[in-house]
Amino acid sequence: MVKGSVRPVMTDITTDIAIIGAGPAGLFMVFEAGFLGYSSTVIDALPQAGGQLSALYPDKPIYDIPGYPKILAGDLVAKLQGQAAPYKPTYVLGEPVLTLTGVAGDLTLKTENHTIQAKAVVIAGGGGMFTPRKPVGLDNLENFEDAGSVLYAITHKEALRGHTVVLAGGGDSAVDWAVELAGIAAHVHVVHRRADFRAAPETVRQMMALVDTGKITLHTPAQLKALHGDDGALASLTLADVDGAETEIVASKLICCFGIAPQKGPFAAWGVTEEKGKLPVDPSTMMTNVPGILAIGDIADYGHKLHLILQGFAEAAVAAKTLQALIDPDKKFKVQYSTSKGVPEV
Amino acid sequence: MVKGSVRPVMTDITTDIAIIGAGPAGLFMVFEAGFLGYSSTVIDALPQAGGQLSALYPDKPIYDIPGYPKILAGDLVAKLQGQAAPYKPTYVLGEPVLTLTGVAGDLTLKTENHTIQAKAVVIAGGGGMFTPRKPVGLDNLENFEDAGSVLYAITHKEALRGHTVVLAGGGDSAVDWAVELAGIAAHVHVVHRRADFRAAPETVRQMMALVDTGKITLHTPAQLKALHGDDGALASLTLADVDGAETEIVASKLICCFGIAPQKGPFAAWGVTEEKGKLPVDPSTMMTNVPGILAIGDIADYGHKLHLILQGFAEAAVAAKTLQALIDPDKKFKVQYSTSKGVPEV
């Protein structure tokens, strides 16, 4: 559930495999598990799938994905989600896993809004747990987040139609969304603490053209100082410039585009051995020291590990074999070829 | 060099890496080696790149290539060749490796028409060495092959313009080429030992329509009995039907589409240990028992090996690291990200 939308009641999910991390290895794990007949639930602290590929460099080309001479990181994420789709994964996004308890075959994961029962867990945690950077020093921020007035990602831009929107930040996300929302929102304010934008020059040029036509108002250099409104419904914001001079602007939505920040992983509390931020695994099974908890992708480590996306893909196939041995120990593992077996219709 | 074209003089090639096998793992090895700065020469007994994907199932969809919800095997081969292209590999196709001698850093491979000097060898031999099936019982077949009158693959269809062509075989290749060449050749004869064709019904229908218009003549059930002509220049062929009755047809090219057949690998002669048709390697380096000779993909084996295309891709990356340690032992290996480094322009 994306933080900032209306808070749902606690939801129970029962799944074969809980995959922690919706980056490329985690998404391909859905396919590999599904191909063997297992259902997956993918949980990520970030509000969208794709991990760092979506959050940090969606528009950068990658050249070393086998079979793709060149693919944009964001497009690879979309392809991997498409490949996972026939196995109907459940996505729990925008919620870090808070606790993991139980034993192999009967594990329980809790996030803020979900309880997930799983037979096994695959940690595909990439470079670690990343969450959106939040603004600092704003009173009652959580109330506004819970009511959906303060957002860290836009998953349904139509929900912003007619709103007066404040975009905070100076990178590609802030500028891209400013241009995009200029045609949807009643008005767009852009607040950035510097005068310069670290975004694609062409998009900055488009934004400036919209400033000239009055669709966008720039506030630079300026910072968020206070949010105003009752019961989390945003009514206005106070901005402060470098000299401390304050301005109040009327707005109903604040979207913070400050990038993402790494968080310390919760692995120690789960009993999973962590060494220098990585989880040691047996490369022949991808099992961590805890039975029933596997790790793949950048967060998994073993002697000859290469931290490349394609290794994470190959590790997902190894992990799938281990999962079958855990869940169906009497079933003989046999490599099946997708050309012969096919996949379900989406 | 495709067997059957005019025989070239022996050619010397100097390369960093000799890759034996032009299947998916071998093609991706070109990329991984190139990304680290090493040149590659790819050698295959088959006349085209792609290994079994091209020879056995080019039109079958594959579902478990990460990032491709579905891709035809033939299309994957084209993508992998495109990904290898920036590193300008040399292809030696249609020629098995006959001998491999020397030591790591200075290895010599010989094929029928090429001598290849390489610093290291990567065997990406897939399910083994496959060569086109040849017709049996034809006197002087090799003379006709050498002169380019008898072919096992069509790499430049324009070279057949104006020729009277005999296609032998009853599968997709024979039928596809019959339809294709009907617009190029002076006339097309199709010889098949059964009355039924094992090919896509729609293509068979197209062929039959061309038979009706007189562009194609069918000879079924019939077999090749003799080739006639001087110095390998085909002038006519004798066919025999099931009762032994003979027919002579005038033609200048014979294209045999009988599929491919596995050959026993030459690995023992090279000192490379072979167990049940596979080459044992150390999965942390992909090195065989012979220093300087690595193996990846389906032919490589280790304890937890999964015989999937995507494992071959991941193994190519591991092999590239080993190659650098072999060729540039003083250079420190560092994982480089393609998003940052990019690839050369094609």
Describe what you observe in this structure.
The structure is a homodimer of 346-residue chains. Chain A is an alpha/beta fold and 346 residues long. Chain A has two domains: 12-130 and 261-341, FAD/NAD(P)-binding domain, CATH 3.50.50.60; 134-258, FAD/NAD(P)-binding domain, CATH 3.50.50. The first copy, chain A, has eight helices and 21 strands. The first copy, chain A, has helices at 24-35, 52-55, 73-84, 141-146, 172-181, 201-212, 309-327, 338-341, and strands spanning 11-20, 40-44, 61-62, 71-72, 90-93, 99-103, 106-110, 114-123, 129-132, 150-151, 164-168, 187-191, 216-219, 222-228, 236-241, 246-250, 253-256, 260-263, 279-280, 293-295, 300-301. In chain A, strands 1, 2, 5, 6, 7, 8 and 20 form a seven-stranded mixed beta sheet that branches. In chain A, strands 10-17-11-12-13 form a five-stranded parallel beta sheet. In chain A, helix 1 (24-35) runs parallel beside helix 3 (73-84), helix 1 runs parallel beside helix 7 and helix 5 crosses helix 6 (201-212). Residues 1-7 of chain A have low confidence and may be disordered.
Topology:
Two copies of one chain form a homodimer.
Chain A: E1 11-20, H1 24-35, E2 40-44, H2 52-55, E3 61-62, E4 71-72, H3 73-84, E5 90-93, E6 99-103, E7 106-110, E8 114-123, E9 129-132, H4 141-146, E10 150-151, E11 164-168, H5 172-181, E12 187-191, H6 201-212, E13 216-219, E14 222-228, E15 236-241, E16 246-250, E17 253-256, E18 260-263, E19 279-280, E20 293-295, E21 300-301, H7 309-327, H8 338-341
Parallel strand pairs in A: 1-2, 1-8, 2-5, 8-20, 10-17, 11-12, 11-17, 12-13, 19-21
Antiparallel strand pairs in A: 3-4, 6-7, 7-8, 9-18, 14-15, 15-16
Helix pairs in contact in A: 1-3, 1-7, 5-6
